[in-house]
Each structure stands twice: as C-alpha cells, then as structure tokens.
Amino acid sequence: LNRRLAEFGTTIFAEMSALATSTGAINLGQGFPDTDGPEEVREAAVRALRDGRGNQYPPGPGVPELRRAVAEHQRRFYGLSYDPDTEVLVTAGATEALAASLLGLVEPGDEVIALEPYYDSYAAGIAMAGGTRVPVTLRPDGERYRLDPDELRAAVTDRTRLILLNTPHNPTGTVLDRDELAMIAELACERDLLVVTDEVYEHLVYDGEHVPLATFADRFPGLRERVLTISSAGKTYNFTGWKVGWVTGAPELVSAVRTAKQYLTFVSAGPFQYAVAEALALPDRYYTELADRLRATRDLLSEGLREAGLTVYRPAGTYFVTADIRPLGESDGFAFCRELPDRCGVVAIPNAVFYDHREEGAHFVRFAFCKRPEVIREAGARLARLA
Ligand code: PMP
Ligand code: GLN
Fold first, then answer.
1. Using a 6 Å cutoff on CB, does residue 322 contact ligand 2?
2. For the segment 201-227, what is each residue's pLDDT rounded down to a tens digit?
3. Domains and CATH numbers, the chain
4. Is the CB of residue 17 below 6 angstroms from any atom belonging to ligand 2?
5. pTM of the full predicted structure?
6. What is the DSSP letter of 3?
7. What does each C-alpha distance from 202 to 35, 57, 210, 213, 275 come to in angstroms?
8. ipTM metric
C-alpha cells in the first residue's frame, strides 16, 4: 500500500458488519435499509434487463433518460435548472462522484476543507487526489451539532481549493440551515473556492427542510460556477447495492468530473440507470412516506438509547443518531463498540473514525435507524441492558 493510502486499511463499515455477522448481533453500524425499495422500481430494472436496455456499455455520461430525470428532479424539488447534456453526469454511486470530483478538481498540495466528523471516503478521496484535508469540527450545541462560522472562515488559506460539504450530515444528522449555507456561499465567492456538496440524504429529513447550496446562486453571483452537487439513488430509494449516483453543476465542473470518471469506471449499472430514471419520477407521496417511516424509527431508537442512559443528539436528517456514552461512565467509543455485541447484541460505529481530532469524537457512537420498527424495538430492549 502506498503512503497516500497507508492510513486507510479496511473501512470501519466492513469491520463492523463482519463483527455483526460473526456475533449474530443486530447491525446498527453500516447504514443500509433492511427492506428493498419500491416494487415498481425493481420491476423497471427487470424490464430493462429483459429488454436489453443497458446490458452493454451505456453512454459515458449516463443514459439520457436518467440525466433528464435528474435534471427534472432538481427542478421539481428545488427549482434548479440544469442541462441534462452538459450539467448532469451519472456515476457509480455518490462514492465515485466524490472521488472523481476530487481527482478532477484538486491539484496535489491543495487544501480541502471538510466538516468533521466526515464520511470516511472523503479522507481517502482527498488523499488519492494528493490534497491535504483541513477539518473544521462540528460540535454539539443543545440538541444539534453546529458549525462555527469563524472556524470555517479561519480554516481558509491561500492553498484552499474546495470545501467538501455534506448536508444532511453523516454521522451527526445535522441539516445545515439557511444562515449557515448563506455564509458558506458568501465565503466561497469571496475567497474563490469550489464547493462540492454531498446531498445523498436530501430526502431523509425529519425536522425542517433540506436546502441545496446551489439554490443560493440567485443571491450570490458566481456561486453557480463554483458548486457541484452530488446525490444518489441508494438512500432515497432503498437500493444501496445498485450504486447509481450523479453530479449536477456548471459545465466546466461536470466536465472535470467526467474526465476523471472515464478512467475510474467509464460506466456502470446500465439497466439500473433506467430503473432509477423511473424512481426519480415517483409521486410526492413516496418521499413523504419514506421520511415518515424513518422519523418514526429515529424516535424509537432515540428513546431506546435515552432509556439505556446515553445522551442523544437529535438528528434532523440521515439514517443515523449519534449518542454520547459518557453518562454510562465510558469514554472510549472504539472499545465500547467492540464490546457492544457481547454486552447486548448490537453493533454500532465509533464516531472517532470520522475525526482527525480524535479526542473531539472519542466518546460518540453512531447508531443506524434505517431498519424495520420491530428490529429497532428489539435493539432498544437489548440496549436497555446497558443501563
Ligand atoms: N456520502 C455520504 C454522506 C454517505 O453516507 C454515503 C454512504 N452511503 C455515500 C456518500 C455513498 O453513497 P453511495 O452508496 O451512493 O456511493
Ligand atoms: N454510507 C454508509 C454509512 O455511513 C456506509 C457505506 C459503506 O459501507 N461504505 O454507514
């Protein structure tokens, strides 16, 4: 393994899912739903396979049906307009979109700011691009995690190339509000930065609303040319295994990502692209029901964790709730998560893996609630043994 990747070994998600399998514990570690997405979308994939649509290399930028559906989705939900031919690119999940964005936009030695705790592939993507990561820490403040605008401003230097944003935010569940987003938009324009914004949890919001950074382009001239938005089908349609993602943004940015993407996978998921094009057009009711179901399991799990004695930060979005284990007299999230299957038959993720400043996250643990209510109820009963 080369020096750039030396620190990355095996992802925490693989490690913890293996622990769940070997111990038979309930897996609230890796974030994936335990029910598949809509029947009609699965049928659409079967039809595409059977009709020979996408079984051979699809077009490099993605099938036109899907690019048009992505553009239409951005218009329908956010009033954003993108040209499906030059401003939309289909990728192998958001993971490839992130890696290709960093590879296509960052020069070796450039600094990339990421909100810490950050999703693990950000650090690896920045490293592969030869960039230097600069974490800006989100800290608990009352019920939610907050971004300190002064810390973000202070983190920008002459070497800063881009800000890697994530809202709704994994693992804290924070949904950035309009003031925070406006501040970031202003900073990007003022300091001539790019912003890559990972919005894969855009439809998983339980309090308030998701606002894409790109919608601030009306107020901040120059922003449209600086913002690249990433999303994917995994979380919105319960198909994390399909790995269909996309980026939207100004042509120069999308074209940089396309160049990198061509030599990573070239193309992927042919038949699934057609199915996701149909999923994007599902009626509003689908999206409301999805959020309603997850809000209920969020509340169920939060209640269980509270009853077990942990301090819970209320996630406004995502699949995850972060809890503080110090009220249990514990301070090492790694040790806690390694022992949890034996102690009570549950698997969780130590948030420390998402930090450069490990001490900031040492005592936080992430639990996924994207599971059926009966599974969350059973996990709650098991966690009660900790109290
Ligand atoms: N970004 C964030 C914040 C995530 O939590 C995940 C994990 N699901 C991804 C990106 C990766 O998404 P995909 O499965 O579409 O590659
Ligand atoms: N995004 C998912 C999570 O945060 C995991 C995806 C993965 O296993 N790489 O749990």
1. no
2. 999 999 999 999 999 999 999 999 999
3. 3-30+285-386 (3.90.1150.10), 39-279 (3.40.640.10)
4. no
5. 0.97
6. G
7. 19, 29, 6, 11, 19
8. 0.97
